[in-house]
């Protein structure tokens, strides 16, 4: 039941290398094969046969005589759009040894040329229909399937019919010529190269070791260079004929149309498709099996009596140490019944209890930074319980021992009723929120639910059914039941382990022995039952009075000002039931810091919220929000700071309290700062292992003309940072500068104003933001010079390059910034055509425009690509040629339409959500010009002329104004440029660190 699966999925921490990102979905650990029957062929819609899960009646299911299945439904989110999904049950696990990578290669080739589309015509065809390449038009290949995705905005009768025609020809009759193969091969190899490196090697080790003996171990969707290079049309056509058949295909449409119309389109374009030859059964994906020499763990442990198979240690010098062990069971298809889903829910409670205890130990300063348990079904190959750890130090044995001790305690004795109640409350509010917001579910997500259900061989259920099943399950979630499910999570056929380590200080035998060693259950991480209530918290201050209240003239948005100077924008909207979004914008952003504050800026992004408010530390913050829909995101921008959260009307007042309390009574707990420091230190070296990592480390610094506040701090600088220093930097930041609050969504106007008065209106008058030492204008690098060359320590075939042209900033230039978005999209299409489609030199080159509204300068147009080192000069030349041509010649009318139509559709869709208006009006209480600018946004982004674009290019895209960066492998230098690797000044003088 995919609605439950999505809501309950745990996300793994950033630094933990856990299970390979295949097509894993959370499911109940499979019982022995005899107790896990294959779905019976009972009457009813094809997706629900063998299931008693309540059918989602808004879906209309059908089957064509040729065996193709379809599902269609009406959905008006966003208005006018139709989401199309075509899923073929053919992924990398369907490949033979000589066909490795063919499923993914075929995904590319069907876009190249097919029955109704000539060579390279697919992307332009959908752009003319308003669909943006990469977001509205895309595809994905996993080990178990290939899915083609089109989100067609403003789907006219003709546009929808054309799209179904194109897709039918792509799936049933692609050209697949040797010429097509030669054209797409460099693109696929570029994708392989750009996704390679240390992190990819670590994932490969995990897959090969954990699924040893099964096809999944050697069937990564990307394939191998040897098999792809050897591909010829006969072999690719044979793979297509074998697996691309109507019986293996599901077509899904969800959108603003009568389901009967959608079903008629499926029949019109897919009824004539017939498979070639007899249907071939899917190959066996195998079962995990313990080897003959498996170890038996001594005493109680996280694997129980599960035998311990192979353990593997792999060295990656620049990656943080990570340990993953997995208890594997055979995957078996099951009847997706209510009882089955109740078991899933109890499994989720069992995992949540363990993970909360593991987190409590980490927060208290344990031996590991993060640790987590996560059960998944992986690619219909294994039912797996993963344990993933990032040790804090080189003493990984203690980290493994500590995590095993927490898990052993969970296996030894049942959790307390209070622990269970806490997790039930969290799950209940998640499911209830889905019910409240059901009307907001976009058609694209609903269509994806069906393809996911087909992939995992389960059903879909509407949010009401999921909530009802959960609430029927709650009485069954007893301590004894959770204990039983906990033990089942760690029982299986075999346990295998992998450690990624920066140095060879461990062996396979060491790791295996650590998992087999005796372990003593540790119950000290069990959480106390002490409740925390908002009623017990101190008030922010005397409730503030409203000093001004005006309508903005934008929809129902109202501006309220309190006597203390805090200003709020509120918009009660019945169009988004159950959803409330809060943003608090305050202070001066990066401008508030001194030049030496970079370590504390970086730590603040992850530790400021966790350091607490008033009497609430991080644990109390978690506890007080139990069973509530609340959040606390934090962001630092050039000119402001932002707190944000998605909440609901019932929790809004308390959400506002937490945000206001952070400004009024910040707490300065040391533990979150020390933990954030450890995480940043562990992560730093890994940034040098790829061009992408170097860009994430250095680009912001370079864009701001090497302003030291934007520098990624080194481990040495982090080591020198202290909790007291953190407080000294952040306390004045929280205390000064204007405050703007936005509350948009399903709210009661009077209750919201009253809650604002008790929280932000009760703050003492704010001190002005400290004067900015230099000009508030952002500094940009000088143009016209030689490229800055930075070294990375990753693979020798990886490089990246960028060219950036300074533009501007500020509200007065908003129309210019919007017209620049059109120019940027023209540039993107040409760069994609040259660098990807024609040269195959880069998988995903892109051009982006930025325009800081709060500053008078600092904007840019930046062209960026990942490449082979020898292609960097060619990228610079190509970018310069495209820029020069845009300056010299106006674009054609068709070229312009392929840009402006998708932009028009993007804005029209986005404007159906209050989030769009919230984003556009950030800062409007201090800069009323933003209200006026909002009224012209659609025209500014979509109405232009070829001559206007040429003039804009002439203004900004001059070569002598641009600056450029090359990121190349250490020791290679920049071919044809004369610059030495690591050249430049300051930070850039180091070899990629």
From TrEMBL:
Superkingdom of origin organism: Bacteria
Signal peptide start and end residues: 1-18
InterPro entries registered for this protein in UniProt: Metalloenz_LuxS/M16 (IPR011249), MPP/UQCRC_Complex (IPR050361), Pept_M16_N (IPR011765), Peptidase_M16_C (IPR007863)
Family the UniProt entry places it in: Belongs to the peptidase M16 family.
Transmembrane portions of the chain: none
Pfam families: Peptidase_M16, Peptidase_M16_C
Residue ranges occupied by any Peptidase M16 C-terminal domain in the UniProt entry: 234-283, 740-899
SUPFAM superfamilies named in the record: LuxS/MPP-like metallohydrolase
Keywords on record: Hydrolase, Metalloprotease, Protease, Signal
Domain Peptidase M16 N-terminal: 81-217
Protein name: M16 family metallopeptidase
